[in-house]
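Side project, low priority. Logging it here so it doesn't get lost.
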Amino acid sequence: MPLSGHVVGLLKEYMQDLVEQAKQEASAQQTFGFSTAPYRSDQAISDLLAILDDRIESEGLQVGLPENFLHEMWSLCNEANRHVTEQVWLDRNSLGQAASKATVREMTYKALIKYIESGEWEPDEPPA
């Protein structure tokens, strides 16, 4: 069964929170003269899974996330990894410059949402 529009909407909201967080981190690092470390799409996926774990623990049922949602997202991200990595690589190389953490997150989450909405992925069926 595919993810509902409500769940995809929540995912997009959480993804946007992570992009904004990365922008704030970059601003703080620049203020204090720190350089930023390279950031990859697999790190963006890990950050998304971490925030999902946190949000599910704190507000999961209240906002309508299914009980097995974290497991479904873990499976989805594993399956989508190659597609997402390739798309982000293409997008980064088209920029012609180094991509910031916020930009990599944006590219990664855009590719992941596109993968979800393409219908190429079907979540695990719950056990009978």
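Brief comment: Residues 5-31 form the longest helix (27 residues).
Revisit when time allows.
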